[in-house]
Design goal:
4-stranded antiparallel beta sheet, rod-shaped, 55% strand, 191 residues
Length: 191
């Protein structure tokens, strides 16, 4: 059997947590010539908190998969070439890509104007699925409380109600930029 060499790359490196990366393997013979279109590469991405894998056919000496990687410092990516025709021997490489904290955003239902005593439910989500912290900056005009399906807002007095949502991040996610929404609390009009 001819010797083979597998070189694994992860793009981008470093990547950000939550984004997909491209894991590629180039497979050559001992002289650096492509093995052509034959065999497969078995990929694994492993961390102490879990892992996954996939395989891809080798086409023109390359195999590629897409994946999301863990931010654990011990995460590694492994690629092993396997030639079922046995013309080339197996070869493999392990790499340790860097995964930085991911960026997250907050989406926030646009509120509508209320009359004193009315309420509405706002839905606040983050790209990371971490809970957002929500508070009013105008407690004399409106109050808020957690309710099933979101954040309940009650209009207390005439004026402008301002609500701010934030998410401080964690070991995997950067803090999100705070988002502020405002709406009017108006007088009830007779029909």
């Amino acid at each position: 059997r001819k010797a083979s060499q597998t070189v694994v790359t992860v793009t981008p490196d470093p990547s950000k947590y939550g984004e997909k990366v491209t894991i590629s393997a180039s497979v050559t013979d001992a002289a650096g010539k492509s093995v052509g279109t034959r065999g497969r590469v078995i990929f694994e991405w492993v961390a102490p908190d879990g892992g996954d894998g996939a395989e891809a056919s080798v086409v023109d000496g390359k195999a590629t998969v897409r994946a999301r990687l863990s931010r654990n410092k011990d995460t590694y990516v492994f690629g092993q070439f396997d030639d079922p025709t046995a013309e080339y021997g197996d070869s493999w490489q392990e790499v340790r890509p860097r995964v930085l904290k991911g960026d997250q955003t907050i989406t926030f239902t646009p509120p509508y104007d209320l009359t004193v005593g009315d309420d509405q439910v706002l839905v606040v989500d983050t790209a990371s699925d971490l809970d957002a912290d929500v508070e009013t900056t105008t407690p004399e005009v409106c109050s808020i409380e957690d309710v099933p399906g979101g954040v309940g807002v009650t209009a207390l007095a005439l004026g402008t109600c301002s609500i701010i949502a934030s998410q401080p991040g964690d070991e995997d996610w950067n803090a999100a930029d705070p988002v502020t929404r405002s709406f009017g609390v108006v007088r009830h009009t007779a029909h």
